Amino acid sequence: MTGRRVIRTSEQLRRTSDRSDWARVRGREPDTSDPDADDASDDMRRELVRLRGRPRGSGRKEATSIRIDKDVLATFRASGPGWQTRMNEALREWLSAKRRPGRPRGRRVAK
Questions:
Q1: Among residues 108, 68, 111, 110, which one has the least CA distance to residue 88?
Q2: Is the distance from CB of 38 to CB of 30 less than 8 angstroms?
């Protein structure tokens, strides 16, 4: 099949797009006979729009820059998605072990 290339200027393209009846297109009901048709209801669409972007944080975490040994970081990353959460939990466990009653709270004195 040999086709003819049609080259249009930006002005021609603007005039062409002005002829579209977008109000009619937006007002059409979706074709439900197609099994691949969009079956989202208006409520679902509103929910999807609301969920766009990065989830809101709890406000308890702070972004920081920290230097960690490569092997430790590689081990956490190799454990799959959620590695930062697991690293945070490991640090929290260590912190709670340090705060147990009966343990001294101050810095250790070098011998």
A1: 68
A2: yes
